[in-house]
Amino acid sequence: MPPRLTRKFFRRDPVTLAKALLGQVLVRVLDDGTRLAGRIVEVEAYLGAVDAAAHTYRGRNTERVRSMYLDAGHAYVYFTYGMHHCMNISADAAGVPTACLIRALEPLENTDKMHVNRTATLASLRTLVDTLLCSGPARLTEALAISRKLDGVDLVTSEQLFLERGPAIPEAQIVAARRIGVDYAGPWARKPLRFYITGNPHVSRFAVRRRPHKPSTRLARCAL
DNA sequence: ATGACGATTTACT
DNA sequence: GTAAATCGTCATA
Q1: Following DSSP, what letter does each residue of A146-196 receive, concatenated?
Q2: Which residue is nearest to the C1' sugar atom of C7, using CA?
């Protein structure tokens, strides 16, 4: 089994950490010992007090966001839209409220169990293709059974939630784009703080697509 | 105490 | 493309 990521790996600025997280493997161990795992293919960086899109904008420090202030390598799991959970990994040092939002995984282990987790809440019980299992921040938390109960967990020491070493992704394969769902953040909405592995089919943006499209369209969107 | 609003996903026209 | 689902959190009072 690959080695687990240590504190040192996480203790970096959120942009550097976000790019380093690409290719690493997120592991969720259920109470019955089942391992659910996926390779990180898309991450967003949130820069803390200066970042209008961050939950900790202007130094906000409430009960909900306290995990963002923990030392690097802790989980910040929040509940939103009345039904979804999203998972972040705290960056920098204790007291610095920066984090990386995990936006998409490439499913690796026990994908059948992930499929059950995902379809359980679906109105129509139609079969999901692999690219719809973990291709979004709320999709992957549902697939890996990550909820607010895991908020504040230390990913360096936890037996329930941690990361394993994967291959570093070369800069040439990393695309930087604007973050999703933060249009309210003015100029901060346009900054290139979302990172994903180029061409990876499990990235959220591609998976959302419903209909086939012309190759020219695909190229134009990739260039974004 | 109350009102407005999501770092989203799904289904439908 | 648009809209519904659904409720914890936060700012205001």
Answers
A1: --GGGTT-BTTT-SSEEEE--PPPPGGGEEEEPPSS-GGGGGGGTS--EEE
A2: A82
